[in-house]
Amino acid sequence: MKFTNNNLPDLGRRKAIRLVGMGAAVGMGALASGSSSLATPNMGNVSLADQVGSFFQDHYKRMSPEEIQEAIERLERKYKSKYQVEVKVGDPKPLPDVLFGYALNISKCQGYRECVKGCTAENNQSKDPNLEYIRVLEMDRGQMNLETADPYYPSTEEVPKPGKFYLPIQCHHCENPPCVKACPVKATWKEPDGIVVIDYNWCIGCRMCANACPYWARKFNWTEPNLPVDTVNTQTGYLSNRPREKGVMEKCTFCAQRSREGRMPACQEACPTGARVFGNLLDPDSEIRYVLENKNVFRLKEELNTEPKFWYYSD
Amino acid sequence: MKLIRFFIDCAKVSLSGNTAYWAWVSVLLFFISMGGFTYLEQMRVGLVITGMSDQVSWGFYVSNFTFLVGVAAAAVMLVIPAYIFHNPDAKRVVLLGEGLAVAASLMCMLFVSVDLGRPDRIWHLSPWPGMFNWPSSLLTWDVIVLSGYLGLNLAIPGYILYNRYQGTEYNKKLVFGAAVLSMFWAISIHTVTAFLFASNSARPFWASALVAPRFLATAFCAGPAFIILAFSVMHKVQAFQIGHKVIDLLSVIVAVSMQINLIMLAAELFVEFYAEGQHSASARYLFLGLDGKSALVPWIWSAQALNVGALILLMIEKTRKNYYFLALACVMAVIGIWIEKGMGFVIPGFIPTPLGEVFEYMPTWMEVKVALGVYGIGALVFTLMMKPLRAIQLGLLANPNLDLVAAKQLYEQREREALEQRIRGYETKIDP
User: Fold this and answer.
1) Which residues form a coiled coil (chain A) (predicted)?
2) CA-based max dimension of chain B
3) Mutation for B interface: A208, A221, A302, A304, most B CBs within 10 A
């Protein structure tokens, strides 16, 4: 037996049969995949230059002001072609001497979930599939066990229900955020004003941050977000509520596009009971400081040492 | 120049074979093509084609990654006896083990890659031109240790084979040093992967100090069991002669590792269930079901039944030495541990969610197809590597006109001489 068969006469035929056989295997595999991916991919009307530009776009913190401006213009062109409306992408910077904090009065919260609606109207989340930053848990009175909570109480139900209280949960903007530690590419970080933000153009979609979060605050775009034109909020911020794309993580940003301009987050404005108190923790005269100094407050899962800047209290 | 010739010669050998060989390659190409086209669909539509959700955000891909890290690490169970203790039987097959480690680490990297939401941005995951959150993020550690391990397992056999191809002797000290390094590196790939989970204090099921040692125990159980099976197949198709001493050595390693694994399982069960707190909810979901949801319960109990069954077969001398029972035990151990540390470990970490929701996960067919494609690539790489490896070991590549039978005889003779020389060496040491 010879080691090579180079000297065999019918090599050409054998080779041909081999190639046909392997080709058939590949073809059958393609059929078995049931994939229609050979159809032309939907690139929208984004120019090649913009596609290349956004592919090679650097991390937010490493871009010069001019590069950020270019990135913003690319995004605005893309949104224009995608949603047929002018979307304004701002880039508000953190204000000096500001550290944002939130407090929520659970004796006032009635479970209306107006905060959820206010949030999704402001922040350009995918609608159907719904992506929501705030989850309101319907809890049994007499305990604090999250596992017996019902987050899916129907919106047709009259609230508050007897024997229940309500616990809204969103990103707690931890001073010691485990998500920031877990991200392998530094696509998420804590800003000087305490807001934990994401660079949606740098996120690789590995979901390490979502696994690290004890408050289940992070939501992933499992497919292209479905944002109907009439639900687009055209006033957006680069690190907050600009429309996202598939395959990236997102979450509450304390409405950085509003709060950094001196306005209240959308959930605070939407709340009809006045249960939500938002403000600057560094300002001794702020309402949030009054709450922290005069009410009995608590935070969720304090044993994990994440130092949330989101407090709960009751009257 | 010579190096390029070496690679060309290797490629030539890889691409030559009989009908059975090409049929096997075609089967693998079928799976690779099926997985590849399904993956294209995933790229187009998004990860929504998988069964994953915000509640269970890692699934089948990461489960297989976790299992395969163990298979990759297990090559060290041949590296230690071969290069450190100079066991001649282990030395004969150590290159196969390292080839398996290469294929397994490659599959690990592929499984992490197909799990990404934005594969187009995978270059962000590098010190340059990307941004590397090292040492803080455990995923960056995994990138380092996995690529390092892949490199080591390519470099050591590559260096040895290149020397044999040239007919030169390799630098024994260099290989010894590299082998010691790869020994610690093998431990590190699995420890780092365990810490990838255990670092999440938000997930009490994973945040346990036992995860890393248990990962090592299951790796040194499933890995060698897998190697025994691979060796048996290669022996059967007469690709390689495998000595029974190596199989004996490996089967004892499987048995001991399985015992350690089961002891740690018992310790975990005691802590979870004696004073069952809220942190035990995931374990309750896994073993008994929670809130009427119990998708993993039959899986985990069949895994434990397979593990215990394998252990019994391996602990009885008669069945362990019987190659049919040994193969059965190895199949049982591999499947048992694939379930236990794959889906049986990754999924319950997510159930219930940190907010107490019980939401189950089931992989979709699309997900399974992509995974089969990844396994196909691993098997193809392993197959293509084994051919030149065998040819070089038998001296066929350096001398293509050599007859196969003559080559085998020459190889045996060389082995015998080396052994005799070693024995003479010991004799002179004992009796100077």
Assistant:
1) none
2) 75
3) A208
- Can you give the residue range of the structural domain that contains B119? 24-401
- In a domain? residue B6: no
If one counts the domains in chain A, the total is: 1
Identify which of B142, B167, B170 has the alpha carbon closest to the alpha carbon of residue B155. B170
Tell me: the pLDDT tens digits for B38-65? 999 999 999 999 999 999 999 999 999 9
Establish if B417 belongs to a structural domain: no
**Rounded mean pLDDT of A231-258?**
97
With CA atoms as reference, the chain A residue closest to B140 would be: A184
Please tell me the predicted confidence (pLDDT) of residue A44: 59
As for how many domains chain B has, the answer is 1
Smallest Cβ–Cβ distance between A25 and the set B26, B38, B41 belongs to B26
| CA dihedral sign of residues A152, A155, A157, A159 | positive
The single residue listed with the structure tokens 């066929």 is B396
Tokens of A73: 């213009």
Q: Is residue B432 part of a domain?
A: no
Q: Hey, what amino acid is at B174?
A: L
Residue A39 pLDDT exceeds 60: no
- List of chain A residues whose C-beta atoms are within 8 Å of the C-beta of residue B35: 29, 33
**A285 vs chain B: nearest CA distance in angstroms?**
34
| Any domain includes A273 | yes
Give which of B21, B28, B43, B118 to mutate to test A binding, by max A Cβ within 10 Å: B118
Q: What is the CATH number of the domain that holds A120?
A: 3.30.70.20
Q: Is B241 within the bounds of a domain?
A: yes
DSSP assignments along chain A, one per residue: --S--TT-TTHHHHHHHHHHHHHHHHHHHHHHHT--TTSPP--TT--HHHHHHHHSPPPGGGS-HHHHHHHHHHHHHHHHHHHSS--EEE-PPPPTT--EEEEEETTT--S--HHHHHHHHHS---TTTT--S-EEEEEETT---GGG-BTT--TTS-SSPTTEEEEEE-----SS-HHHHH-TT--EEE-TTS-EEE-TTT-----HHHHH-TT---EE-SS-----GGG---EEETTTTS---TT-EE---TTHHHHTTTPPPHHHHH-SS--EEEEETT-TTSHHHHHHHHSEEE-TTGGG----SEEEEE-
ipTM rounded to 2 decimals: 0.92
What local confidence, expressed as pLDDT, does residue B85 receive? 86
- CB–CB of B397/B391 below 8 Å? yes
- Say if the Cβ atoms of B403 and A35 lie within 8 Å: no
Residue A198: predicted pLDDT: 98
* CATH label of the domain that carries residue B244: 1.20.1630.10
3-state helix/strand/coil string of chain B: CHHHHHHHHHHHHHCCCCHHHHHHHHHHHHHHHHHHHHHHHHHHHCHHHCCCCCCCCCCHHHHHHHHHHHHHHCCHHHHHHHHHCCCHHHHHHHHHHHHHHHHHHHHHHHHHHHCCCCHHHHHHCCCCCCCCCCCCCHHHHHHHHHHHHHHHHHHHHHHHHHHHHHCCCCCHHHHHHHHHHHHHHHHHHHHHHHHHHHCCCCCCCCCCCCHHHHHHHHHHHHHHHHHHHHHHHHHHCCCCCCCHHHHHHHHHHHHHHHHHHHHHHHHHHHHHHHCCCHHHHHHHHHHCCECCECCCHHHHHHHHHHHHHHHHHHHCHHHHHCHHHHHHHHHHHHHHHHHHHCHHHHCHHHCCCCCCCCCCCCCCHHHHHHHHHHHHHHHHHHHHHHHHHHHHHCCCCCCCCCCHHHHHHHHHHHHHHHHHHHHHHHHHHHCC
